[in-house]
Design a protein that fits this description.
mainly alpha
């Protein structure tokens, strides 16, 4: 039995979490670009 359907559902859940995060940040007055920059910096530090 394939797990492809589960992977697709998990991707949708993850996408919805990002949308929720960005919408919450916008309501808090944080620009999406600021979040992207922060996450990019953290990703580079992790490497």
């Amino acid at each position: 039995m394939s797990n492809q359907g589960n992977d697709e559902l998990q991707a949708v859940d993850l996408d919805l979490e990002w949308v929720d995060l960005l919408m919450s940040a916008k309501q808090a007055g944080i620009a999406a670009e600021d979040i992207r920059r922060f996450l990019s910096e953290k990703a580079l530090q992790a490497m």
